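Appendix B, record 7
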Amino acid sequence: MVTLPFQLDPTTISIIAFLGVTGMIAALLLLFDNSGTNSLEERLDVLAGKKASAGDQEQLNVTRDTFHLNTKSGFAIVAHQLMERFGNLRLIFAQADIPLRPDQFLGVVIGSGLAAVAIGLAANAPIPVYPVLAIIGATLPVCWLYFCRAKRFNKFAKQLPGAMELIARALRSGHSIATAIKVVADELPEPISKEFNIAYEEQNLGISVEQSLKNLYTRMPNLDYKFFAMAVAIQRQSGGDLAEILDKIGHIIRERFRILGQVQALTGEGRISGIVLMILPIALFFAVWYLNSEYVMTLFTDEIGRQMVIAAIVLQILGAVTIKKIITIKV
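Structure tokens (predicted):
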């Protein structure tokens, strides 16, 4: 164990943490800075088709994403470059449909991590706890993002049977599949109305019905919706009564939700037990630390104590995964 020749007070720790975060942001800005591209390289990119010309770029600048990027915000530049390098980030933001831009969300992540460290400083927590608090604080907005994404997926799945029946009735009344999609966009609430409206607008721009429905599946990867998209593609190629197929798909989805509700009721005790078993050790640790901090500090100052902490974290993760596997029943 390495011992420091001096004692760090909370003020010094906060200053070091601030400088470290500032240096990290500066490093990201330098990493994703593309200002060094000269005019010759830009002209070659235009000729190769990798970059829009000056006239096209002026038209492109009126779009929302480019407008936000041209604000010269450091977070906006970093977030835009991250979205370009990691395409899944853009898809996750589109699926979650949160009221934040990527640069704003990046600021929330960093601010949440610093807030967690500030809470640790106010509570006079031990020094080894600060990195854990920073990671937990930075992880909370990401968990919220995925929670919004999962919530939107579930709401879309619950609205799908009604959409199938509405499309089937529209087809029986003589409407085309494109008009039926517009009816869903006009009559049903979000998120299914927004997603079907995007698919309808894509058709107006010249994209085929099959491709627009495929793009919707990319944004909303739902297995029941995949059956609908496949049924539409097969019907347009070989014919058939699409309205009857959609009625059967809607009936199957409703039956699956009924069985899933029964499964949720039967596994409720296991889910509550898993939550209690996961929270109880953490709550007990903070309670003992509040009552007798010196007793808990042995876990961080002694080598055997640190091994016990690592073993406890690993066992907690294994227990959570095991309980999740037991109570998760696919329907």
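Remarks on this record: Residues 129-172 form the longest helix (44 residues). Residues 31-40, 52-72 have pLDDT under 50 and may be disordered.
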